[in-house]
Amino acid sequence: MMLAGKAEKVDGTSVIQRAVFDVSAIDRLDSTGALLLQKLRIRLEANNIAVELAGLREDHRPLLDYAANLAKAEALTETPHHPLLAMIECLGRGAVDACNEARNLTNFLGMTVVSGFRNLLNPGQIRFVSVISHIEKTGLNALPIVGLLSFLIGVVLAFQGSDQLTRFGADIFTVDLLGISTFREMGVLLTAIVVAGRSGSAFAAELGTMQVNQEVDAMRTMGLDPVDILVLPRMLALVIAMPLLAVFANIMGIAGGGLMVILTLDVSVAQFLERLSSAVSTQTFWIGIIKAPVCGLLIALTGCREGLLVTGRAESLGLHSTRAVVISLFLVIVADAAFSVLFSVLGI
What we know:
By secondary structure, the protein is mainly α. The chain folds into two domains: 2-77, no CATH class; 101-346, no CATH class. It contains eleven helices and three strands; from the N terminus they run ββαβαααααααααα. The protein has helices at residues 31-46, 61-77, 83-121, 128-138, 143-165, 174-212, 215-221, 226-264, 269-279, 282-308, 314-346; strands at 2-10, 13-22, 50-54. The chain has a three-stranded mixed sheet with strand order 1-2-3. Strand 2 (13-22), helix 1 (31-46) and strand 3 form a beta-alpha-beta unit.
């Protein structure tokens, strides 16, 4: 490709008024080359330089015309980059997306509540076999990982607490720290985090695969409600399994922390149990357990909704599975903070 230009003198300075591109030697032209030519042409014409393509082949003209439309569209959408404005725009878009996500999640919760009341009025529609199957998958099969992590967290919590309290001669209060923190916060929160990563992503992947295979559309075609068949059993299973998992996590956390206290401090098993019973009341136990069904509801709700949002694209399944875990963890932390504020206001 050859370039020739015609210049005129303006106030004693040579100014290019016209540019000619000799494209007669081009035998093959792809979309990248055509777009490059048109972008260069637009840039020159913006500087008041007339552009002419000499020797253009007729079979190349349609591709150049199409590239010209693309180049003009890109030129119209290009805006000057300003870091501060870009940051404000990003924050604004994030806030709007968060509000839309909250609205859609609330809408999905409403659909599930309506489905639940409809099934309560007609208990024969509840799929108890599916509920029990999901309780096994989300609860029974999760016992090893929940128990192991809770045991190790109890060991770490007792070790770190005793290391700090021993400096003040208050090492016996390690039992108080272990019991209150485990029963009130750590047991249910750790269980919710494990279940969100394990069952929340599994719900999204299962329903997403059914969505890709058009099984959900087939249910709707047959007059079946996917919320009744797919969402409600999973939600009921997780609401039932979460308190049981939280109790198991509390026991394993206390076992791990108690083992560390007994081995590292001059505390017997009887002293540990006596101190634990005096430090942890029934109210403390129920404060943690009350959070478990709410966390289970949020995890199941988010996982099922993200699964039903999967489209036919290959990357959509992975994207929504990841979103299910992230949003579930966020909602669990927000719910735990809300419960903490509420209990503080109530003086519990």
